[in-house]
Amino acid sequence: MAKDMINRLKENVHESNLFSRDDLLILAVSGGADSVVMSDIIHKAGYTFVIAHMNFNLRAAESKRDEDFVRSLAAGYNVEVFVENVEAAPFASSNNLSIQEAARNLRYAWFEKLRQQFVERQRSQNHHADVKIITAHHKDDSVETMMMHLFRGTGIAGLRGIPSVNGKIVRPMLVFTKDEIRDYALQNQLRWVEDSSNQLDKYTRNYFRNQFIPLLKNIYPNVEQNLYSNLQRFTDIDKLYRVTVDQKLKKLQQIHEDEIHIPVRKLKKEPAWGTLLFELLYPLGFSAGQVEQVILLEQAATGKQVIGDHYRVFRNREWLIIAPVEQLNAGYHIIENTDQLVQANGRQLNFELLDRSEVI
């Protein structure tokens, strides 16, 4: 089992080009079984790494226990350990975030800051190898993410689950299931700590993990294996889908400074044009519900709009215009060749189509 998982990780790293032998890896270690097994496999595979741990101070003595455990784990591997203490609860409250969102934002912001410090250290030592952040997300985490995205309404891309690479964040453990990781830990007599908050179903991911998926298994005993297979299938489908969507959006969009203009008539000639709008607007911060409102603009009068967090979409005669929210008044006005009267910024303009012979 141990040798097999080490080889599988090395094969995954090589085939997916996740990182190289020369790269420095910053392992995100909580002290739980997943990150402990990741540390052990990375160590036995011969990669160079340091360990990073964030103490969110959410579980009193348990949080301190986790920190002390991770420090001892790093000492056992004789590698550097970096610990950051934060107050996640006040941060969440002051930024109107859930605890999970706050913890994620704090964690990845610090990881990137730490990564940049290592990049500078490498550069000062005339080393040119890359520095990557490594997390212990596994296949079951990806399945949970896929299902949450499905019910939240994130489109085809969300059904891929967790990507193995996101910038400098790399997840080489996605080839393993939770059961495989737990078996590895037991067979290699590894110690780890349990996070008691993982049993609290008030967190969405925990509810899926502890309640929803086990319920599905009662109905469909092979549901986990089917979901594992679907992850790869959805990833492949998304690649094909993305090529088509990008090609069609490129033909539809007209870029004017920081605005995107979409001709309504041309848009409506496309099959599944509402889906094209979704793929254009979702990355700009529009929810699935807001995209439905935008679709209704194709029947709306000039001036009607849908406002998102950062962008707004408004109807301007035969166009849908996507503009930053702060840009309430564009510096120009679209004039169609059929317009005779245009009102803009409190002014009125009259137009008349003349024969060429009438122009002096």
Question: Your description of this structure?
Answer:
Helix 11 (273-281) crosses helix 12. The chain has helices at residues 2-15, 33-44, 61-77, 88-94, 99-124, 139-152, 178-187, 204-219, 223-252, 264-268, 273-281, 288-296; strands at residues 24-28, 48-55, 81-85, 131-134, 165-166, 169-170, 254-256, 259-263, 305-307, 311-316, 319-324, 341-344, 347-350. By secondary structure, it is α/β, with parallel strands linked by helices. Helix content is 47%, strand content 16%. The model has no long low-confidence stretch (mean pLDDT 89). The strands form three sheets. A six-stranded mixed β-sheet has the order 3-2-1-4-6-5, sandwiched between helices. Strands 7-8-11-10-9 form a five-stranded antiparallel β-sheet. The termini are far apart. It has two domains: 1-228, HUPs (Rossmann fold, 3-Layer(aba) Sandwich); 235-324, Uridine Diphospho-n-acetylenolpyruvylglucosamine Reductase, domain 3, CATH 3.30.465. A hairpin with a 2-residue loop joins strand 12 (341-344) and strand 13 (347-350).
Brief characterization of the structure:
With 360 residues, the chain is of the alpha/beta class.
